Amino acid sequence: MKFFRFIRTLLSFVLILSFISSCEKEANPTDPRNIFRSYVGASFSISLDSGPLEEPKVWIGSGFVFDKQGLGLTCSHVVPDDKKIVIRMGGTGKKFYARTIKRDHENDLAMLQIDNQEIPVVFNVANSYEPETGSPFYMISTSFGMEESFDSGFIANGSRLGADIFSPNLPFVQLNRMVLSGSSGAAVFDGNGKVLGVARFQLSSDGSKRDGIGFAIPSSVLREFVKSIPMAGRTKEEIQRGIVEIPILTAHLIGKLGLKYNEGVLVSYAEPGSVAEKAGIKRYDLVIRVNGNSIKGAEEFYTEMAKASRSEEVKLKIVRDHRELEIKIIPSE
Predict the structure, then answer these.
(1) 169 contact partners, CB below 8 Å, separation of at least 6
(2) What's the pLDDT tens digit per position in 150-203?
(3) Beta bridge partners of residue 114, listed in sequence order
């Protein structure tokens, strides 16, 4: 009897150890399954079909979100200049319209604004860094049009010159895996979600896509590109200094308010206590210039306001009661 009790006790102990081990494994942040689950929500697929969102799409490229206000990054060669596109967010599968707001042709980078969306999961580009050779990497992309494709590998070379024959002096992060068709624009990141680069292209011995090595745009180039975007890391409210605009200037509003202009941004209201309210901005003021630049609509207004840092004053030309006025919005201390 003692022998059987010993065996039962031993088996129970082994089962408990196995359970604890499996729980620790499941909670291990370096487990690739957890890495995928943590960052798939910051990745997206790209389609050039701008038709109704509910229709099926063909996914041709990849990208990722780096700002909760809906700013994303991809490769410039993936997206056109003046065309609305559709993106599919990883994890949820939700589709949204997006547009290109800035690009760097030399380094093949493009920034997208996802329409009217706040994204809960983003990659922190500010914490990106140059990886060492041999470091592990992960990637969530749209390989051959298959969304949410998860891949991993090792950095084959942290700074490889001569990979691009057209720009031999540009360094790239060399990967030990291919950048498959549809993966261009995906974030190459480490186990903590820090961006190591942006997947761009591959080289193969015979020009085919059957074998080869991949290359990514370095994080240093990525950081400089993001820093050149005034709205990056800032909310719409911060940029517009408390002005809440009416997005579309309709013929009805023009007639009702007796406006002589059919372009500009009509103020819905200035938020109480904001610098816009303190500057004297009122309901139904029509903003026609920001810092000397003409405003056609809400998009130009947002872009021009974003060019001024939070510590700079903004000069507005407005129309109020058929009179043109100039108002200075002074930043709060």
Answers:
(1) 161
(2) 999 999 999 999 888 888 888 999 999 999 999 999 999 999 999 999 999 998
(3) 98
The tens digit of pLDDT for each residue in 53-105 reads 999 999 999 999 998 778 899 999 999 876 889 999 999 999 999 988 888 98
The upper half-sphere exposure of residue 135, i.e. CA atoms within 13 Å in the direction of its Cβ, equals 21
Amino acid at 249: L
* Tokens 């990497």 belong to residue: 137
3-state secondary structure 214-248: EEEEEHHHHHHHHHCCCCCCCCHHHHHCCEEEECC
Look up residue 53 and give its DSSP letter.
Answer: T
Looking at residue 217, its amino acid is I
The strand ranges marked E within 122-264 are 136-141, 149-160, 172-175, 187-189, 195-203, 213-218, 243-246
Instruction: With beta carbons less than 8 A apart as the criterion, state whether 294 and 256 touch.
Output: no
